[in-house]
Design a protein that fits this description.
about 350 residues, alpha/beta, 2-enoyl-CoA Hydratase, Chain A, domain 1, 2 domains, six-stranded mixed beta sheet, three-stranded parallel beta sheet, 9 strands, EC 3.1.2.4, 3-hydroxyisobutyryl-CoA hydrolase, ECH_dom, hydrolase
């Protein structure tokens, strides 16, 4: 039955719509869902009657909470080979969304995390609401930000992206706009009218799509990151995670101390690998290069104890008390970090020539 399909597709006017349809799982992505979205994009790319694609999530809790990390946990526990192929197809989809030749409108209402960012923030018309919570929380489960997250976050103003990556904090509407993760704010109660307007037969090209979204957009409620920019830029400019934490603890701003405490609860190995990945991504020229490096990092995480432990603590047992290995930043070695940039056993993603620098 249609309501049981994890991805729903529909046509209205000259608009094609993709709805992620696992509301009880916060629309978490599975491998079949990724393949279905890619299949739909292929069909619509060749269909001259389709002027734009709109992506949203079923239910009222969010667009997508990320990849199905319960499935990744099962795969890692059993030594299976399902996670790497999932990431391979997911990251290829992320790259494709960024280069899609037709307007790709992402309605980023509610929770948008991890893989949810990948299917939305690479689009060219990205809409947030007062309910939006946009985050890359990977360091909390032993992963490095992926789905192009390192590329997106390093292009945020100053060190805001580094702050979001290391803490895993969620950005509301105004902060997502500030960081370049979204383009427009539309109140949630106006989304049905916006969808209907986009489906109007008079919407025929990208200019029409953008003009339609602007008609429903308004100024968002105030965010927090702009006010915190001074201490964030000063503290996160440090060369190592340890130095960043020391600067945060010594700054005197209560929010800086809170950020330090959050960071100290994340996987020490993932934190160091993430900072290295961010610094590398800042030097890259394309999203595809960043995705290639992220694929290496994700595959490497499958062989670390922190991935299983992080997912256990967050979503399996939900005790929120992970026992990281190693448990302190000082015990994470350069070799530990280097593992996250090593070619995976099954070969690289291959979207671009992977940099050796």
């Amino acid at each position: 039955m249609a309501h049981e399909e994890p991805v729903l597709t529909a046509r209205a006017g000259r608009t094609a719509r993709v709805t992620l349809n696992r509301p009880r799982a916060l629309n978490a992505l599975t491998h079949p869902m990724v393949l279905r979205v890619a299949e739909a994009l292929t069909a619509w790319e060749r269909d001259e009657s389709v002027a734009a694609v709109v992506v949203d999530g079923a239910g009222d809790r969010g667009l997508c909470a990320g990849g199905d990390i319960r499935a990744i946990h099962r795969d890692a526990r059993t030594g299976g080979g399902a996670s790497a192929p999932f990431w391979r197809d997911e990251y290829r989809l992320n790259a494709r969304i960024a280069r899609y030749p037709k307007p790709y409108v992402a309605l980023m209402d509610g929770i948008v995390m991890g893989g949810g960012v990948g299917v939305s923030a690479h689009g060219d018309v990205r809409v947030v609401t007062e309910r939006s919570a946009v985050a890359m929380p990977e360091t909390g489960i032993g992963l490095v930000p992926d789905v192009g997250g390192t590329w997106l976050l390093t292009r945020a103003p100053g060190a805001l992206g580094t702050h979001l990556a290391l803490t895993g904090r969620a950005a509301g509407a105004a902060d997502a706009l500030l960081c370049g993760l979204a383009d427009h704010y539309v109140p949630a109660d106006r989304l049905p009218a916006l969808r209907a307007a986009l489906a109007d037969d008079r919407v025929r090209d990208g200019a029409d799509v953008r003009a339609t979204v602007r008609r429903y957009a308004s100024a968002p409620p105030a965010g927090q990151l702009a006010a915190d920019r001074a201490w964030i830029d000063a503290c996160y400019a440090a060369g190592t995670v340890e130095e960043i934490v020391d600067r945060l603890l010594g700054h005197g701003e209560p929010a800086a101390k809170e950020a330090a405490e959050t960071i100290l609860g994340r996987s020490p190995t993932a934190l160091k690998a993430t900072l290295a990945a961010l610094r590398r991504a800042a030097r890259l020229n394309t999203l595809e290069e960043a995705l290639d490096w992220e694929y290496r990092a994700s595959c490497a995480a499958l062989d670390t104890p922190d991935l299983l432990e992080g997912i256990r603590a967050q979503v399996i047992d939900k005790d929120r008390a992970p026992r990281w290995s190693p448990g302190e930043l000082e015990r994470v070695t350069e070799a530990d970090v280097a593992c996250f940039s090593a070619p995976p056993p099954g070969g690289d993603l291959g979207l671009s020539p992977v940099s050796r620098n």
